[in-house]
Amino acid sequence: MKKEIEKIFVELIQKSLDLPDNYGTDEKGNVIPCVCIKAQNIKLFNTPHIQITVSTVSSNTFANRKEYFEKNNNYYERLMLNEQRAMQIDVYSKNNEARERFWEVQAALTSTLASQLMDKYQFRISKISNSFNLSGLDGGSDINRFSIRFNCLSWQEKTNKVDYYNKFETTVQDSNLNVFGDFVIQQ
């Protein structure tokens, strides 16, 4: 996967719901997010418009592999990871927009754009999701909040150059294990 899974979902939701990159800045100069990756330092609820956050709730690895290969007399290891992620998308608003539009986020997960992004970045989105109305979670606040949870299968790969079977550092010892020589054997 060449792009963070959360960033892919931000792109999917932003395009599917035809939302801007952001709503400008507040009086303190902070950017007012529209669709973003959930983070502790992002200020929400500073606009009457809909705001959406994307996060990974948990991850289960079901394949973690390593293979070696040679290319142009260099040795490499390829690290591959297959995982199932539980993703969460939260839809917020101070007005009724979150309540009226959260279904569009669920629908976007099975859209043509979602299929194109899955093919491009080699991941899969589960067609079954759960949604929760968490509007009363913040006590007496007037925030409408809906959470959508679903599973996603992703694949990661990383290639590193290694000295595997390319050179060996060794020492020469006598029968009393006294070292009298250090050298490197190169292929």
Characterization of this structure:
The protein starts with a helix and ends with a strand. The radius of gyration is 25 Å and the shape is elongated. The chain is 18% helix and 51% strand. It has one domain (5-60, 82-157): STM4215-like. Strand 1 (22-25) and strand 2 (31-33) form a beta hairpin. The relative contact order is 0.18. Strands 3-4-5-7-6 form a 5-stranded mixed sheet. By secondary structure, it is an alpha+beta fold.
Helices and strands in order:
Elements: H1 5-16, E1 22-25, E2 31-33, E3 35-37, E4 51-71, E5 74-93, H2 97-108, H3 112-121, E6 124-133, E7 144-162, E8 167-173, E9 179-186
Parallel strand pairs: 3-4
Antiparallel strand pairs: 1-2, 4-5, 5-7, 6-7, 8-9
Distance between the termini: 34 Å
Read across the widest sheet, the strand sequence of neighbours is: 3-4-5-7-6
CATH-defined architecture? 2-Layer Sandwich
Shape field: elongated
The CATH class is identified as Alpha Beta
Share of helix among residues?
A: 10-25%
Number of helices: 3
Radius of gyration, in Å, reads 25 Å
N-to-C series of helices and strands: HEEEEEHHEEEE
Approximately how much beta-strand content do the residues carry?
over 45%
* Total discrete domains: 1
Uncertain spans: none
The major pleated sheet works out as: 5 strands, mixed
Mean pLDDT: 87
- Content-based structural category: alpha+beta
